[in-house]
Design brief:
The chain is an alpha+beta fold. It has two domains: 7-91, Orthogonal Bundle (434 Repressor (Amino-terminal Domain)), CATH 1.10.260; 110-293, Beta-Lactamase (2-Layer Sandwich). Helix content is 47%, strand content 13%. The protein contains 14 helices and five strands. The protein has helices spanning 7-18, 42-49, 53-60, 68-77, 82-91, 110-118, 138-143, 157-163, 165-170, 174-191, 196-208, 210-217, 266-280, 286-293, and strands at 124-127, 133-136, 226-233, 237-248, 251-260. Strands 2-1-5-4-3 form a five-stranded antiparallel sheet. Helix 2 crosses helix 3 (53-60), helix 2 crosses helix 4 and helix 8 (157-163) runs antiparallel to helix 10 (174-191). The longest helix has 18 residues, at 174-191. It starts with 6 loop residues before the first helix and ends with a helix.
């Protein structure tokens, strides 16, 4: 399959990754002399991958397509992690994923909506393509923000991280969370390079925020998996939450993210307090919002 990603995108990714590796890191001797480029030279990557320098140069310049075995070797030479390796294969057109023909707004899968409706003591949201927020429960609204007050076209998690001052204050490590958000968007850009709303999102955030533009240029990638976040919540104080992501089999572009805490922990107790506060504030899940606008 021929990749629809601009040809220089794969080359930029490879150049960025090799610039971060020293000869010593890959088992090559240090020459001691000055180097014109940071990190590994093209000929050094080619040597380690057992391919010609001309072959690797043409690959970086977007003038040829590499086979899966060659890509696998280059990924190993450049010490790519699983997410970066997957991203490399997507850029090279070695996946079967195609850009959706329709770019309309997604609707939450009924199965995920039922799960959300049953989660009353656990904050949870459903994200779609680009990190669009498709659905949430009341406790997620209390934890993060009242999503119902945000226009639907702006209900996008990466966008909120960079444009909502409240979220900058909420995350104890805002920079770490923002970097992950950028890396996740870049991973999706390889999957759906022609998605006009994704292109618009990247353009808007690159213009509005210098840090987004800088991190976007770093070509870091990440999948939605698991992790731990510390939040400084304005109502209940510090929350140390484990987050996990479940993918819908009926639509792999929809992901249920849940935030949990060990039973008996201070965070677990504070979530119970937050749930009571959400009820007092009349914060509603997305399902009730949908019912209110139904004909």
């Amino acid at each position: 399959m021929t990749s629809n990603v601009p040809l220089n995108e794969l080359g930029e990714f490879l150049k960025k990754r090799r610039s971060e590796l020293s000869p010593r890191a890959v088992g090559l001797p240090e020459t001691g002399g000055p180097r014109r480029v940071a990190g590994l030279r093209r000929e050094e990557v080619a040597q380690l991958a057992s391919i010609s320098t001309d072959y690797y140069t043409r690959l970086e310049q977007g003038r040829m397509q590499a086979s899966a075995p060659v890509l696998d070797t280059i990924a190993r030479v450049l010490h790519l992690d699983d997410d970066e390796r997957g991203y490399l294969f997507q850029l090279a057109g070695k996946t079967t994923t195609r850009t959706p023909r329709r770019h309309g707004r997604q609707k939450v899968q009924p199965q995920l909506q039922r799960v959300l409706d049953d989660l009353t003591a656990t904050p949870a949201i459903v994200q779609g393509r680009r990190g669009d927020i498709l659905a949430w429960n009341a406790l997620a609204a209390a934890l993060v923000t009242d999503f119902s007050r945000i226009p639907e076209k702006h209900r996008n998690y990466p966008r909120l991280i960079f444009t909502d001052p409240a979220l900058r204050s909420l995350y104890a490590d805002w920079e770490g969370s923002a970097r992950i958000a950028v890396a996740q968007v870049r991973m999706e850009a390889a999957k759906y390079p022609e998605d006009p709303r994704l292109i618009e999102l990247v353009g808007e955030l690159s213009t509005r925020d210098k840090q987004f533009a800088k991190w976007w240029g770093d070509h870091r990638v990440a999948a939605r998996t698991v992790g731990t976040k510390t939040l400084n919540h304005p109502v209940v104080g510090e929350l140390v939450l484990d987050w996990d992501t479940l993918t819908a089999n009926t639509d792999p572009d929809q992901h249920l993210t849940v935030w949990t805490a060990a039973s008996g922990s201070p965070t677990h107790e504070r979530l119970r307090i937050l749930a009571s506060w959400a009820t007092e504030q009349n914060l509603s899940p997305s399902s009730s919002l949908a019912r209110s606008v139904a004909p």
